[in-house]
Design brief:
With 88 residues, the protein is mainly beta. 0% of the residues lie in helices and 30% in strands. It has a domain of 49 residues: SH3 type barrels, CATH 2.30.30.
Length: 88
């Protein structure tokens, strides 16, 4: 299992323009292959919990937001997390 620690984050010029990802948004992680979905965000600690969507489904907890990047130009980058509707 990959380990994402804040101290191991690579410095990136895009870091200054970074934004908080949205819940359900598909993202990538600097230095890692594959795509992830944002499960939760802790803005105070600047970390997120992510689930891998390419390859085995695993949850990575406490990933530094400095390492999280949106999937540029991907129309599927946002998954809407909402309750299912019931039929009348």
């Amino acid at each position: 299992m990959a380990s994402f620690k804040q101290s191991s984050v690579l410095q990136d010029p895009d870091q200054a323009r970074a934004r908080f990802p949205a819940l359900g948004e598909r993202v990538r992680v600097v230095g890692e292959e594959g795509e992830y979905v944002v499960l939760s965000i802790d803005r105070n600690r600047h970390v997120a919990d992510l689930m891998a969507v390419s390859g085995p489904r695993r949850v990575e907890k406490g990933v530094s937001l400095q390492a999280v990047r949106p999937l540029a130009g991907d129309p599927r980058s946002s998954i809407h997390l909402c309750a299912s509707r019931t039929r009348k």
